[in-house]
Write a structure and sequence with these properties.
Blueprint lengths: L2 E5 L3 E7 L2 E9 L3 H14 L5 E8 L4 E5 L9 H11 L4 E8 L6 H20 L1 E14 L4 H10 L3 E7 L3 E8 L3 H11 L7 E13 L6
Antiparallel strand pairs: 1-7, 2-3, 3-6, 4-5, 4-6, 7-9, 7-10, 8-9
Helix pairs in contact: 2-3
């Protein structure tokens, strides 16, 4: 079974630590060329910054790279990379730009600032899981609707669409290996009145951890 985690989208966040500005960005990428293009794009945009530290992880070939870009060794790129390793997120590039505020942070302060910038950017981007899903159509009555929704969630499924008519029709995605148990459970729990119908299979990414909303 193929299953891995990637950023849901691009994000940009800002952290101020002792007058230094840390601008964190995350992108989803599929190659080293794409990752390096994002890094170069950021360097050009923030050409006047003191540092543009970066890291990336790629699923293909297990590639991991990072740079401290002039910060003391081990205080920026590696701590940033550690964030994505802990979250098990791949096919990702992260750049944290620092505008120096005139106050030295020390090694520990730099590690914390770069780690937090990377984590904030990832949280804002959100995380999606890529795996094989079975698309299913689940017709039910309005009285059964909320219970069916709970079962979809219980089996690790994702609700894609709801059509409201005389009855309700849920379009859902269920993890491939759980689709048969899901259908059997619904049929049993509803005394044969709710039947989940398969509508094909697909390998796709769906949000697993929603992006953090900024007010």
């Amino acid at each position: 079974m193929t299953e891995y985690y990637i950023p849901t989208g691009h994000s940009e966040t800002e952290l101020v630590e002792k007058r230094s500005r840390f601008i964190g960005q995350v992108w989803r990428v599929s190659s080293e060329e794409e990752a390096r293009a994002r890094i170069e794009e950021t360097r050009k945009k923030h050409y006047d910054a003191r540092h543009n530290c970066w890291c990336y992880r790629l699923r293909e070939g297990g590639v991991e790279r990072y740079s401290d870009d002039g910060e003391p060794q081990g205080t920026a790129g590696q701590p940033m990379l550690n964030v994505f390793q802990r979250e098990n997120v791949t096919d990702v590039v992260c750049v944290v730009t620092r505008y120096f505020g005139g106050i030295l942070l020390g090694a520990g302060g730099l590690v914390r600032a770069y780690s937090k910038s990377a984590k904030d950017a990832l949280d804002t981007a959100g995380i999606s899981v890529v795996r094989r899903w079975v698309a299913m159509e689940v017709p039910c009555t309005y009285a059964q609707f909320e219970e069916v929704r709970r079962e979809v969630d219980h089996f690790g499924g994702v609700e894609e669409k709801v059509d409201y008519g005389a009855d309700v029709l849920l379009s859902v995605l269920i993890p491939e290996e759980r689709s048969a148990p899901f259908a059997a459970h619904l049929l049993d729990a509803s005394a044969g009145t709710v039947e989940a119908l398969e509508a094909g299979e697909q390998l796709k990414d769906v949000p697993w951890r929603e992006p953090v909303r900024k007010d």
